[in-house]
Amino acid sequence: MNDQPAPSYRPLYQQIKEALLSRIVSGVWPPGTYIPSESALSQEYGVSVGTLRKAVDALANEHVVIRHQGKGTVVATHDSDRSLFQFFHFVRFDGSRSLPVSRVLQRRCRQATLEEAQALEIEEGTVVVHIQRIRVLDDVPALLEDLVVDAKRFPALENEPQTLPNTLYQLYQQKFSQSVAKAEERLLAVVAGQQEQKHLGVEIGSPLLEVRRIARGLQGEALEYRVSRCNTQHHCYLNEL
Amino acid sequence: MNDQPAPSYRPLYQQIKEALLSRIVSGVWPPGTYIPSESALSQEYGVSVGTLRKAVDALANEHVVIRHQGKGTVVATHDSDRSLFQFFHFVRFDGSRSLPVSRVLQRRCRQATLEEAQALEIEEGTVVVHIQRIRVLDDVPALLEDLVVDAKRFPALENEPQTLPNTLYQLYQQKFSQSVAKAEERLLAVVAGQQEQKHLGVEIGSPLLEVRRIARGLQGEALEYRVSRCNTQHHCYLNEL
DNA sequence: CAGTGGTCTAGACCACTTA
DNA sequence: AAGTGGTCTAGACCACTGT
């Protein structure tokens, strides 16, 4: 997405942005910690405050850090209110948000299918952790989700405590040091099968909204491939352009 | 969306941003024209170049203007490549874009339904122009679109030349001085009916992706309400987060 | 070459948070 | 009151576009 086309000239603030990012990625500044003040950082890097600000601005725009006037700049966590809905677009028809409740149906290791391998940019047959869950919105079982992650990147995820947190990305961040920073979603319409009939309470053949998401880390690595099938009788997917 | 909560303090660059915007809205700087240089504007408003830049930056971020290094800053038009795909999210499954070709099926004036009136923020029964068309992607009739606009805002739209341009928003801008700046889309899954069977060549009861879009002008006024039903056999809706 | 936007500087002051 | 990010200034220089 942010491909620089053979730069030949690289603005200072971009170099500093990457320097800061590498300190976040490497774990020097874990999520939730306040990074040094702008004046301190500008001195450390030997640049003006204005230039350093542009670097931090860029990170703030990508939700990697969050600024708080008077307090400081914190590395973003997936429990901060703001970040919660960057990846969750299902709302009531009037546009109001509703918090999902999750129930895990299945959790096991297996080999990646071709589709999953391509999405995760790994070899077909690589061992992945597969989790299936339903998500309840306003007491309606609205989504049936299947997601896979590379087992090497998330060791022993299948043995995590029985009650997985509602926001899985928080778990990825806290237990596996993997922060989801962006994602691509492909949406299409499909028909409900037996599984959806059973878990979502819809009739076989009824239309569902399918969302295929590739979630990516701070440096664009594919972390998770997720397929959600949603009953859009009571909720819809909202996108603002 | 950009609601300021009783500011009590209003940064200079925001005031200037609105001053610039009002000159665009009022037609002093129509779409496609280059606005004065940053130094000229900074002198006119009696602020520093840096402050004026922040104002223009804000407009550029909202795609109201487009900067061109070495040339100047131009008021955005709907034919500029960049702006074309802000509102068109249908792609092939590999993510590559494909240009739509449109064919108008119907065009007439009638009274707004309740749903349309609410979307357009007008009274139920107000006269609207209703256009129905199909859009072909890669030689596949992929979308069936129904859209309505307030007839008062778009006088005699129903009498426009038989061959409406492919990008309607370009027409809105050139003939009616209405620039679409942002939009909200609600996505859900529906089943195909007779109309979709006839025009999209899908079977009755097969699943379709329905997109309900409210397109808004530079100041947030609802300009158009559009419902698209898409056959997602060969294309999908792509969203990057 | 002149003119544009893009980067960078050094410093002042303001608004907000915390102690 | 001290420290943070947010605004604003005035000016220098760089990269890109036209003529």
Please render the helix and strand layout as text.
The structure is a homodimer of 241-residue chains.
Chain A: H1 12-25, E1 34-35, H2 38-45, H3 49-61, E2 65-68, E3 72-75, H4 81-84, E4 90-92, E5 101-111, H5 114-120, E6 127-137, E7 140-150, H6 168-176, E8 182-191, H7 194-200, E9 207-216, E10 222-230, E11 235-240
Antiparallel strand pairs in A: 1-3, 2-3, 4-11, 5-6, 6-7, 7-10, 8-9, 9-10
Helix pairs in contact in A: 1-3, 2-3
Chain A binds a DNA duplex (19 and 19 nucleotides) through α3.
Protein name (chains A, B): GntR family transcriptional regulator
GO biological process, one term (chains A, B): negative regulation of DNA-templated transcription
Keywords (chains A, B): DNA-binding, Transcription, Transcription regulation
Features:
homodimer, about 240 residues, alpha+beta, Arc Repressor Mutant, subunit A, Chorismate lyase, 6-stranded antiparallel β-sheet, 11 strands, about 25% helix
Overview of this structure, please?
Two copies of one chain form a homodimer. By secondary structure, the first copy, chain A, is of the alpha+beta class. Chain A folds into two domains: 12-75, Arc Repressor Mutant, subunit A; 83-237, Chorismate lyase (3-Layer(aba) Sandwich). In chain A, 26% of the residues lie in helices and 34% in strands. The first copy, chain A, is built from seven helices and eleven strands. In chain A, the strands form three sheets. Chain A has a six-stranded antiparallel sheet. In chain A, strands 1-3-2 form a three-stranded antiparallel sheet. A two-stranded antiparallel ribbon of chain A has the order 4-11. The longest helix of chain A is centred in the first third of the chain and has 14 residues, at 12-25. The first copy, chain A, is globular, with a radius of gyration of 20 Å. β11 of chain A pairs antiparallel with β8 (182-191) of chain B, so a sheet runs across the interface. Chain A binds a DNA duplex (19 and 19 nucleotides) through α3. Chains A, B: One of its GO terms (molecular function) is DNA-binding transcription factor activity.
